[in-house]
Structure prediction request, 252 residues.
Amino acid sequence: MLQELLPATIFAVLLVFVRMGGALMFLPGYGESYVSARVRLLLALLVALVVTPVLRAELPRQPESVVLLALLLFGEFLIGAFIGGMARIMMSALTTAGMTIAYMSTLANAMVNDPAAAQQGSIFSAFLNITALVTIFALNLHHTMLAALMDSYILFPPGQPPPLGDFADIASQVVARTFVVALQLASPFIVVGLIFYLGVGILSRLMPQVQIFFVAMPLQILKGLWLMLLTLPVMIAWFIGAFEDTLRIFEP
Prediction:
C-alpha cells in the first residue's frame, strides 16, 4: 500500500530533502532569519533533486509501514539539523567575542539588532557576524557546507539509528572549541584593556582630583575602534580556519 502511495523515486527525493532541509534550517547564510522560509525550502528541494541520483546507492529501501517511514524521516532530519547546528554553534563564537570586546570598549550598552544572531547584540557582535558571513560566501565555504552534507551519508548512512552518543561527544567538543575561539578572538582587547585599566587605576591614585571616568571613557572607545581596525583581518582569518575545521569533522 505504501509503495503505491509513495513511488520509489519520490521516496528517494523525500529522504534526501528531509536531511538537506534540516541542515539548511541552521547552516550560516542559509538558515538566517532574514532568509524567507520559502526560499530555504525551495533551495533544499533543488539540492535534493540534484544530489539524489548521486546518493541513490546509499539510500535504504522503502519501508513497509508508515510508522517505519516516519522514524526514518525523523532520523534523517535529526542528522541534518545536527550538522547545521554545529556550524551555527561555531558562529556563536563571534557573538561571544563581540560582547567581550564591547565590554572592554565601554560599548556593551550600545545594543543593535544582530540579523545573524536574530536578537539584540552589541555593535561589535553584529559587525563580526556580518563580516564573517560575507567572508564565508566570498571564499566559497558555503560549498564546503554542502560537501559536508554529502559526506554525511558515508558517516551516517540513512536507515540506521542516529549515533546519539557520538552526537553528544561532537557537540561537547564544538561547544568547548567555540569558547576557546571566542577568547582567542577577543584576547588582544582583553590584554590591552587590562593594561589600560591598570594605567587608569594608577592615575586615579596619583591624581585623585582627575575626573577619571570622564577622561577614560573616550579613550576606551577610541582604543576599541583602533584595535578592531588593526586586528579585524587576523580575527576573521582565525575564525574562518576554526569554522572550516568544524566542517571537516563530517569528512569521512
About this structure: The mean pLDDT is 84.
